[in-house]
Protein 1
Amino acid sequence: MVGEFEDTLPSFFSESRPTASVINYDADLYSSTICALKSSKSVIDENTILIFDEFLINESWENDEYRALSDFCAIVACTYEVIAVSFFSKQVAVKLIGI
C-alpha cells in the first residue's frame, strides 16, 4: 500500500484479518505510530509481539514511539511488558497485557 498511514491503515485493517503473531512498527514519529497502533488493534492480542524500530536512544524518544505506545495503552486500558531490547538497532519488542 502506498500513502500516508492515516489514509491507508484504517481501510487495510477494516477487512477481517487473523490475529498477528508479530507486528513491526517502523513509524518513527508519534503521529504515525499512534495511528498504526490504533489501526492494528483488531489483530493484536496478548500473544502478539510488537516491535518498535526506534523506541529508544534517539533525541526525541520520549515523544515518539515510546509516547505513542504509552498513550495507546492508556486508551485501551492495558499495560506492556518489554521482552527484548537491542541497543545496537534501538529496537524494543513488547507484549501487551490485558488487551
Protein 2
Amino acid sequence: MRIISGIKKGFIIKGPPTVRIENLKPMPDKVRESIFNILGGWIEEKQVLDLYAGTGAVGLEALSRGAVSVEFVENNKKTSILIKENLEKLGFTERVYQEDAHLFVNHTGEAFDLIFITPPHKEIDFKVVEAAGKKLKPQGIIVLESDSRTEVPLFENLKQFDQRIYGRLKITFLQSK
C-alpha cells in the first residue's frame, strides 16, 4: 500500500504483519485512488473522520491531499497502533481513537466535512451511517464502503449523489441535505 497523490505521494503505508490481523482488509489502492479522484480538490482544508480506519490508508491519503485534519477511529488495538506508526512515519500528528465507531459518532461533539465509513465486515450497521450523517457540516460528504450486493437504504438527513462498484466492493457517496 502506498500514498497515491499529494505531499506524501509514493510513501509506503505499513500494512499488517505477516500474521493476519482479524477483520483487517485494506481498501485496494485502485479503489482509494478512484474515490479521491471523484472528490478532487474539494478535500483541501477539510476536517475528516475515518471510521473503521484499519491501517489508516484512507485518512493518510486525505492528509496527503490537503485535508486540514483527520481523526482516526479503530476498535482493534493492533491496528490502532499500526495507524499511529504510519502517522509518525509520515510526520503527521493526528488523533487516533481506539473505540467502537458507533460509540464515537454518538458522543463526539465535533462536526466533519468528510466521513469515511469503511467497515471490515460485510454487514453494515446503518445506524452508524445515520449517526455519522448528523455529524456532517453543511454540504458534508460520507463515503461508504460496502459489499456490492448490499442495498444502501435512504436516509432522512442524507442524499445519495454517486455510487460505484469495483468487483465485490460498492462505494456510495452521500451528502448532507
Protein 3
Amino acid sequence: MIVSPLHLKPLKLGSVIGVVAPAGQLDEQNLAKAVAYLTSNGYRVVYGDAIFRKHGYLAGTDEERADDINTMFQRRDIDAIFCACGGYGSPRIASLLNYSLIKKHPKIFWGYSDITFLHVAIQQLTGLTTFHGPMLSSDLGTETRQDELKELLAWLRAPSALIYLAEEILFHGTAHGKLIGGNLSLLVSSLGTPYEVDTDGAILFIEEIDEEPYVIDRLLNQLKLAGKFAKVSAVILGHFNNCVAKNGRLSFTLNDLFIQHIVPVGKPILAGFNVGHCEPNDPMPIGAFCEVNTYDKTVVIKNPFTHD
C-alpha cells in the first residue's frame, strides 16, 4: 500500500507527552525517574488509563492497551506518545488501533523492541513516520541514561538529519529508500498478517536480543524465503545483544549467518550500529528517507519532520 507521508511537529518546551504501555508491564520506579526528568525540564506528562494495570503478563487487556493509544492520538493536547516498555503483546492490539484516527491526528510515536509490530502497522497503513528508540521505563529511567534522554529531547525539539557510521561492511554499494525495520522476531511475526512488513525498495534495519544463533538463522531464513531481502535496497544491521551460542554448543557466528542469508542478494549491507537493545540506542525514524554509502560507511536519514 502506498500512502503519502504525514506532517509531524517537533516538540517544544511545554509539550505534553502521553505515556502508554502497549505490551508488557513496566518498572514503576524507572518510569517515575524518567517522568521526573521530563517534568523538571519543562514537559507535561499524561499517563494512559491502563498503564499500571496487570492482566497476566500484559499491561491491561488488549482493548485497554489499544484504547490508550487511540485516545492519545485523538487528544489534541497530546503532542507525542512515548511507550514505557516493550516485552510482549503489541501484535495483539494491531487490529484494535484506529488507523484513520491516527492518520487524522499525526504525532510523534516512540518505542522499540516489541513495539516494532506497531511501528510497521502504523507507518504502512497511515504514512506516519514513527520513531524506533529507547523507552521511558525499560531504558531511560536509569541514571546512566539521562544524558541520552537529554540528547533525544533536544533532537526532537530541533530535529535535523541523522548521520550514522558503520563499523563493518559486508557488501559494498550505495542505495536510497524508505527506512523500515526493527526487532527481527517482530518483523518475522508480521509475515502472513495484514501488517506484513513491506521491504520493496526499502532500507531495512534489524536488531535482536537474547536469541541464540540457530534462532537468528531461522528468522533470517524465513525473511529470505518470504522474499523480503530480495526486495530491499540495502540492509542495516543493528545491535544483536547476547545473541550467542549457549552451553558451549557448536555454532555459526552471526556474521556467518548474515553472509549465508543476506549477502547473496547483492545489496549493500552495513553493520555495527547502536540500534536496538544497547546503550545508547540511536533513534531510527521509520518511514523517513534514507541513503547509505558503504564506501564512506555512512547512513544518512533525512530530517523526518520535513518533506522537502
